[in-house]
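Standup notes, protein team

Yesterday: finished cleaning the Metabacillus bambusae set.
Today: Helix-turn-helix transcriptional regulator structure.
Blockers: none.

Input for Helix-turn-helix transcriptional regulator:
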Amino acid sequence: MKDHEKIFNTAVEATLEVIGGKWKPVILFHLTFGNKRTNELKSLIPAITQKMLTQQLRELEEEGVILRISYNQVPPKVEYELTDYGWSLKEILHLMCRWGDLHIERKYGGRAIVLANPQIEDVHNI
């Protein structure tokens, strides 16, 4: 075997290396609906701590998936947006949402609720 910097058993591992975890897919999903300020993301994801949100945003920025836009004004204003590379994740994120809706219905029936339920376009019927 040649000298490789990294070995993956499957390309799914490479995807999860970038967007894996509890919060990154949720953050990215919300960004598919437009730029968001930190406080907007925090209100959309109330269970995440400020420290964790900041950490996840930094990691996504380091991977080149999101862009941090800092406006030179008082008070300071920062927004996050998907890069072109990040936009390439839109379809998979929306498919995850649609699958999650099916899973919730299958497992919980009417005994569960989704608080943030934006209308997503029909991404290949599941």
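Follow-up from PR in the comments: The chain has a mean pLDDT of 92.
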